[in-house]
Every structure is written in structure tokens, then in C-alpha cells.
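Board work, copied verbatim: NUBP2 factor
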Amino acid sequence: LPERSTNLLGVRHILLVLSGKGGVGKSTLSTELALALRHRGLRVGILDVDLCGPSIPRMLRVQDRAVHQCDSGWVPVFVGQDGAIALMSIGFLLERPDDAVVWRGPKKNALIKQFVTDVAWGDLDFLIVDTPPGTSDEHISTVEALRPYRLLGAILVTTPQ
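↓ predict structure ↓
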């Protein structure tokens, strides 16, 4: 692996949270899962790759935080008084948290790859990846970028219909 791609080597498990449609609770499930794992004493991170609707910073009440740089890349935002959950989202990179992101595929895919290679996650037991709704290029880019690190697990959120 290239030197800049070592940021995920300390991550033991990667879980993607997916759905075929929007509004089924992917971000809620990702957030609650992270909180539950953290409650069990595990080290947890959330990567929010829902670039057009980054809701996790708001759910965890850290939408006004800023991302900083270190020698290894971007430092995720740490959530809670004890900094128990590491979080990276495009929501931290926007001028205003409610700004719309209207990008074509190549720009979205490049940012996803940058999130995978350039975020200094440190040692985590779980990295939960909150994906956008549907089946799009973002999903393919995410899986391709993460494939070299660990076998991926997935949670598919559905509705009863």
C-alpha cells in the first residue's frame, strides 16, 4: 500500500450501512450502532459518505466543528466529552452546514477515495460507513477504495413493503 493509504490499517472491522431507497433510517442506524458499540467499550468511527445529505454531524450535535490537518492527513472530529467516536463527513468541509452539494460522479468519487486514504482514524474496532440512498457510483467507489483493507461487512436497511 502507498504510504498515505496506511490510515485504515488500525481499523479492525468496516461495516457499510446501505439501503435501496432514502428515508429508511440508515443514518439513524449508523449513529445508534456507533453509540451502542462505544457503550460496550469499543473504539468506533463513522465515515459519512452521504455527500448530498450529510446528517450524522447534526445527529451527534457536532455540525459546527471543523476538520484539522495532521501529518497523516485529516483529523476526524471526535464526538462526546471523552472524544469516544471519531467522525468524518463532508458536512464539516462546507462553509455552512446546510449548503447543498451538487456534484457529478467523478468529484464525489474522488472525495470518497480521499476520505478513505487521507483521514487519520488511528486504532478503531469498528468503522461504520453511512452511505447515500440507492445504488450509485458512490457505493462502488466506497467498496473499491475500502477493499484492500479488510473484508467488509454490510447492514442493509429495508422497509416492510
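Strands lie at 11-18, 44-48, 68-70, 73-75, 77-79, 85-89, 124-130, 152-156.
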